[in-house]
Amino acid sequence: MPTPVTSEVAVLDGQAGSAQALPDFSSEAYKDAYSRINAIVIEGEQEAHDNYISLGTLIPEQADELARLARMEMKHMKGFMSCGRNLGVEADMPFAKEFFGPLHGNFQTALKEGKVVTCLLIQALLIEAFAISAYHIYIPVADPFARKITEGVVKDEYTHLNYGQEWLKANFEASREELMEANKVNLPLIRSMLEQVAKDAAVLKMEKEDLIEDFLIAYQEALEEIGFTSRDIARMAAAALSI
Amino acid sequence: MFGLIGHSTSFEAARRKASELGFDHIAEGDLDVWCSAPPQLVEHVEVTSATGRTIQGAYIDSCFVPEMLSRFKTARRKVLNAMELAQKKGIDITALGGFTSIIFENFNLLQHQHVRSTTLAWERFTTGNTHTAWVICRQVENNAPALGIDLKKASVAVVGATGDIGSAVCRWLSSRTGVAELLLVARQQKPLEELREELGGGRILSLEDALPEADVVVWVASMPRTLEIDTSRLKTPCLMIDGGYPKNLDARVAAKGIHVLKGGIVEFFTDIGWSMMEIAEMEKPQRQMFACFAEAMLLEFESHHTNFSWGRNNITLEKMDFIGGASVRHGFTTLNLQGLPQAAVA
Fold first, then answer.
1. Is residue B249 part of a domain?
2. What is the ipTM metric for this complex?
3. Domains of chain B: total
């Protein structure tokens, strides 16, 4: 394509090479925001653990594999607890419980009704895609200790996303309608969770715009892998964009 | 498979297109919604060359719109995410269209090779600048004589002479066409002097001084919004090739004897069954396209999977010969002035 530099682009020339500045990890503002973000991550991993164990009751033939995934989530949770300790931050767990409340409720309802598809969509697709995108954005701006831990975690989370994908792919036709419905109900929750966390995330130098786009990329990839057409996916994802 | 990464020419155009495609929720969203919208592979296409070779391609809309240029991080993310998508889709060679390559170059995205868990393989991408430069040169060679301009006696001004395309155009014009004189115009003095040394000729001038002397002006730099061109000082006839992006020269120099030609545009010999080219606002969207897009198609036709055009000032005459030969062979012609008798295309 032509190389010309438009005046708008030229103005921004100077920014190009600058590396991303890290936040001041010891500042009160950082620690305050971190107390909630760290709690969300810890609670998220705890919920993931519990959800995989619960899923094992719905898919008994895969209970062992699900228990293995659950153990990984437990390990992640401990890793993230140490990140908080390392910065001298106490995680605000009551906040995190409330944060996950609506999604937790929906998972529990689906579990009681034996809706495997809805449970998988909530845990293995939505929550895992949310985690993957947030961890990827966090890594470049994390403190060195947390960075190392998060890099290890993110590799595992792909395995979990993949688990849900594979199951839903194998049962795509039978799951399709329930997936659409579960998406409609739960994707807006993820979006509002992103909104709630945006201000604190910004203190950690994680921007809302990045979080939403990266989440959608991970989620759309999963839906595509499962078998949805790109038009279906764009329509399903619109629920996350248009708030 | 070849790929094209493109975008709409404005936010309004992007919304219209999304609405046409049935993506109403996104179409109705404001600019913030678009800033968070992931890239989309919107169309697959099959193209058969004049030689009979058939290839597959895909069009990726980065969901970037020019209104995002002032948001540096957004623009950067749009480009990198679109490139990641192209690579994940297994596309062998993808052209960076419109602002995509400009953002890539100006924001130095070479230092952002890692996008989440993907390491971008640069050899899968091309700026398409070699083909663009070749097409612009052919447009000069074909259209100047049609206006009665003899290149052997003509002065050709290249505005943006030190850029990737500009320097390639200078190389070609000075060694292949025997133009009487090259007038070299660019912002920075040092690269201009180096270019003149490399070319073994050419005169360095300011834009203001160059324009009244030029029989042909090749614009490969965009103009500041405030730039006004005094058409009464221009030679007549004068051939102006608008090789910049976006193309906005026409209205500024409308005057008798001044002939503006959209530069770096090619036309395929037959209709291509795609719908996305409409967003590039071509006159014949089924056949016409930016030469940079066509470069990805040519590299696929030739099974030449490599970042053929990459970095700055790497375009050699040999590369221009290769891509130009392929362009003709596979059925592309360069866009010419309308209503004038045309010389044969190379």
1. yes
2. 0.84
3. 1
Residue B301 lies in a domain: no
Nearest residue of chain A to residue B33 (CA atoms): A241
Q: What is the pLDDT of residues A93-143, one digit of tens each?
A: 999 999 999 999 999 999 999 999 999 999 999 999 999 999 999 999 999
> Is A8–B69 a contact, with Cβ atoms under 8 angstroms apart?
yes
Chain B environment of A216 (Cβ under 8 Å):
36-38
pLDDT score of A242 more than 60: no
Does residue B2 form part of some domain?
Answer: no
Question: What does chain A look like in DSSP terms, one character per residue?
Answer: ------HHHHHTGGGTTPPPPPP-TTSHHHHHHHHHHHHHHHHHHHHHHHHHHHHHHHSGGGHHHHHHHHHHHHHHHHHHHHHHHHHT----HHHHHHHHHHHHHHHHHHHHTT-HHHHHIIIIIIIHHHHHHHHHHHGGGS-HHHHHHHHHHHHHHHHHHHHHHHHHHHTHHHHHHHHHHHHHHHHHHHHHHHHHHHHHHHHTT--HHHHHHHHHHHHHHHHHHHT--HHHHHHHHHHHH--
CATH code for the domain of B166:
3.40.50.720
Nearest chain B Cα distance for residue A191, angstroms: 12
Is omega for the bond preceding B237 within 30 degrees of 0, making it cis? yes
Contacts of A242 in chain B (CB under 8 A): 25-26, 28-29, 33
Tell me how far apart the alpha carbons of residues A215 and A222 are, in angstroms, rounded to a whole number.
Answer: 11
Q: Give chain B positions within 8 Å (CB) of A6.
A: 69, 99, 102, 222, 245-246
Q: Cβ contact (<8 Å) for A7 and B225?
A: yes
Q: Positive or negative, the Cα torsion across B3, B9, B11, B16? A: negative
What is the residue range of B257's domain? 130-262
Q: What is the pLDDT of residues B54-94, one digit of tens each?
A: 999 999 999 999 999 989 899 999 999 999 999 999 999 99
Residues of chain A with Cβ-Cβ distance to B127 below 8 Å are 1, 3
Residue B268 lies in a domain: no
Of A5, A17, A234, the CB nearest to B221: A5
Q: How far is A103 from chain B (nearest CA, A)?
A: 23
Question: Which residues does chain B have within 8 Å of residue A17's beta carbon, measured at their own beta carbons?
Answer: 108, 111
